[in-house]
Design a protein that fits this description.
This protein is mainly β. The chain has helices at about 80, 280-290, and strands at about 100, 100-105, 110-115, 120-125, 130-140, 140-150, 165, 180-185, 185-200, 205-215, 220-225, 240-245, 250-260, 260-270, 275-280, 300-310, 315-330.
Length: about 325
């Protein structure tokens, strides 16, 4: 069965959609529901629904996802073997100074963290109705899902999308201070990088969830999937194969469609070709999508950039986001 990932629109009380993350179906980010889900505490999730090929979720909040059972382990600690090339001009990860750490077993929890002095936001974001338990620790922009349990809903909704983000995402207020939201016209370079690893071969993806729109409204999703588990698909029934993005390493499959009536474009690594490290200029992917006549990706502003894992049916153990950054330079 195909699932739809697209639920990261309103953490806290504004949840609205569902997957990255790659995938997608959920409620409207401008309404309640989403990654975080509605919660009395300031730690919500993404919009309700899923972004992975299934019917939109109806719960209050949460991030959707595209689960699936991978054919092999994902990520891996040897990043030289599983990274996607090297992008010219990428800042690199270096040895960042991190601030902010802790752990949580709560469904909706959030905390402010820093990487080299720049602020980000971590949220547990277990918005799916099938979630039962989890134990997550975080340090700076990295986090580890030590354990998580739950079952994907029949419509493909994941149990959640634990994530680190910067910008105007699924919570009521913007998280972090990396410079987002930012109008396309003001951006010179918008770099993002992510490293992750796990030996868990279960039903989860690893993806960026990038929200686009205007200064005042969310309009569309752009997702970049580094892991597409077997049996799960990003949202959208239309496909473009063997895609390369000018200026960026890697070959992708584009799946596109809508989630909660909002356009979504997913750049996805082929099944069995998991990548554990990638750096790219976000504007190159946006420009590539906008240049393709088949695609619709409205918006003139990058509102938020998030990374994390959409998890479907568990149990899951030791899935780790090692490092994540956003670096914006303006004109």
């Amino acid at each position: 069965m195909t699932s739809t990932s697209r639920a990261r629109d309103s953490v806290f009380a504004l949840a609205t959609l569902g997957l990255l993350t790659l995938g997608a179906c959920a409620a409207d980010p401008a309404t309640s529901g989403g990654t975080g889900g509605s919660s009395s505490t300031p730690t919500g999730g993404s919009p309700g629904g899923t972004k992975t090929g299934g019917a939109p979720g109806s719960g209050s909040g949460g991030q959707g996802g595209t689960g699936g059972t991978p054919t092999s382990g994902s990520g891996g600690s040897d990043t030289s073997a599983c990274r996607v090339g090297t992008a010219t001009g990428a800042p690199g990860f270096g040895s960042p100074m991190i601030e902010g750490s802790g752990s949580s077993t709560d469904k909706y929890f959030g905390d402010d963290v820093k990487r080299d002095g720049v602020g980000y936001r971590f949220i547990t974001n277990w918005w799916g109705a099938g979630w039962t338990s989890a134990d997550v620790s975080y340090s700076g922009t990295g986090f580890t899902v030590a354990s998580a349990a739950g079952t994907s809903m029949p419509d493909g909704t994941p149990i959640g999308y634990p994530t680190t983000y910067c910008g105007l995402y699924s919570e009521k207020a913007a998280g972090g201070n990396c410079g987002l939201p930012a109008a396309f016209s003001s951006i010179d370079q918008l770099w993002t990088g992510w490293k992750w690893h796990s030996s868990d071969a279960g039903q989860y993806n690893a993806a960026w969830d990038i929200w686009l729109g205007t200064s005042s409204a969310f309009q569309s999703y752009l997702m970049v999937w580094l892991r597409d588990p077997k049996g799960r698909q990003p949202a959208g029934n239309s496909v473009i194969n063997n895609v390369t993005v000018p200026g960026e390493p890697g070959t992708w499959i584009i799946r596109y469609g809508t989630v909660n009536n909002h356009p979504i474009v997913n750049y996805v690594r082929a099944e069995g070709q998991d990548a554990c490290e990638y750096e790219f200029n976000v504007m190159n992917f946006i420009n590539d999508a906008k240049s393709r006549s088949a695609l619709t990706l409205p918006g003139d502003t990058v509102r938020a950039i998030a990374v994390g894992f959409e998890l479907w049916t568990g149990p899951f153990t030791n899935i780790a986001s090692d490092d994540f950054y956003v670096k914006l330079t303006t004109k």
